[in-house]
Amino acid sequence: MKVTIFGTGYVGLVTGACLAEMGNHVVCVDIDAGKVERLKQGDVPIYEPGLEPMVKRNREEGRLDFTTDAAPAIAHGDILFIAVGTPPDEDGSADLKYVLAVANTIGDNLDRYAIVVNKSTVPVGTADRVRAAVAARLKARDSQVEFDVVSNPEFLKEGDAVEDCLRPDRIIVGASSPRAVALLRKLYAPFNRNHDRMVVMDERSAELTKYAANAMLATKISFMNEIANIAERVGADVELVRQGIGSDPRIGYHFIYPGAGYGGSCFPKDVQALGRTAHANGYDAVLLNAVEAVNDAQKAKLFELISRHFGGDLKGKTVAVWGLAFKPNTDDMREASSRRLMEQLWNAGATVRACDPEAADETRRIYGERADLVLCDRPYEALEGADVLAIVTEWKAFRSPDFARVRGLLKTPAIFDGRNLYDPVAVEDAGLAYYGIGRGRSLRDAT
Ligand code: UDX
């Protein structure tokens, strides 16, 4: 089938590459000419396992093209995906200016039936706004062309995006037109494994499904972080509690890992935006607001523990930080917990020696050259001259360190384990102080 995708960010690019991989002819449109040029050379601007070879292969085989030119791209596609960004505006609501700009462009150029598919995470009611925008532009030029608007949210995870896209758990299609549903069934048929993955519903329900999924996952994490904070105070180990509750299939083991807070481009933004939507519709989303507040406090947790360890005086101290990206297998620093930690450390007069397998360049881009930030290529190099070590992201490279070596390099050997990666006893046996998240010892050791 012929597909056009607006936006070559995570969602647009991965969707485009995967649809091409399944044999469709895909044209991706972006307003950023530099990015389009790079993509044409097969140079993928984001770190996502498996994506670059897939882009290169499909380009070479003629199924994937990139352009800044919207008009021919609209003429190409029977299905026009909108996968542009919806950044939060000043009050935390999703800003639809890019989505609506694409809708306008489609309305200005469409000259035969097509389906306009929203893949961006957009507030409930956006499908109606897109429909109205396209219709208004068609009307302005007296066009009788028919079109349908569909909500088809994406559930890919960074780091597993290609895999998630090729083998989705579910394909949510919010559509009221049987013609659109039939076309999307055809497009997505190759993605069904064993059984039909497509769940068809109305547009508003599809839009809310995306927010509900992310808000539920964020709630699980904040819930566990709250239990961790209680565990810490009552002398329990949240890691044992986690295993204890995860064994109940109604709760499950996924997304109940306590830690230094959730980050990324989705959870913080979507929880906030859903709260705003609720508020705008006359409902105070108490639980969602609490999920956000717990996460916000959790991002300050490592700093609190470190600060308390040093009696509140961090001036002249050096903290080694392992892990900068908001999670492993990505170079994405959006809303990363490491940022809060580093900024708090710098404000307190400390220096950071940081190591991350992928996110060093992104960190440099965000913070520039500064005397109180040293980016190191290797984990142990970050420990040289450091007082203590904080773990923020659970990359494989940090999972089983040589604790004796760590102790030998640190001036005041202590590990602040923001992802509960280590066995506290093993760390303490190696002669280091151990602080975890909700492990019943952080407060005791610190006081
Ligand atoms: C998320 C959703 O998983 C995905 O379905 C949606 O489409 C986009 O948002 P992503 O942002 O890539 O994907 O990251 P995810 O793997 O979900 O992790 C989000 C954050 O939660 C990370 O900062 C991670 O460290 C944190 N997390 C995750 C926890 O703190 N504890 C957990 O148990 C799980």
From TrEMBL:
Residues binding substrate, per UniProt: F155, L156, K157, E158, K210, F255, I256, Y257, P258, G259, G263, K327
Binding site for NAD(+): D30, K35, T86, T121, E158, K269, R334
UniProt pathway: Nucleotide-sugar biosynthesis; UDP-alpha-D-glucuronate biosynthesis; UDP-alpha-D-glucuronate from UDP-alpha-D-glucose: step 1/1
MF GO annotations: NAD binding; UDP-glucose 6-dehydrogenase activity
Transmembrane segments: none
Enzyme Commission designation: 1.1.1.22
Keyword Transferase: no
UDP-glucose/GDP-mannose dehydrogenase C-terminal domain segment(s): 320-424
Reaction(s) catalysed by this chain's protein: UDP-alpha-D-glucose + 2 NAD(+) + H2O = UDP-alpha-D-glucuronate + 2 NADH + 3 H(+)
Highest taxon of source: Bacteria
Example GO biological process: UDP-glucuronate biosynthetic process
Alphabetic keyword roster: NAD, Oxidoreductase
Active site, UniProt feature: C266
PANTHER family: UDP-GLUCOSE 6-DEHYDROGENASE TUAD
Family recorded in the similarity comment: Belongs to the UDP-glucose/GDP-mannose dehydrogenase family.
Protein's job: Catalyzes the conversion of UDP-glucose into UDP-glucuronate, one of the precursors of teichuronic acid.
Listed name of the protein: UDP-glucose 6-dehydrogenase
Naturally occurring in which organism (per UniProt): Luteibacter rhizovicinus
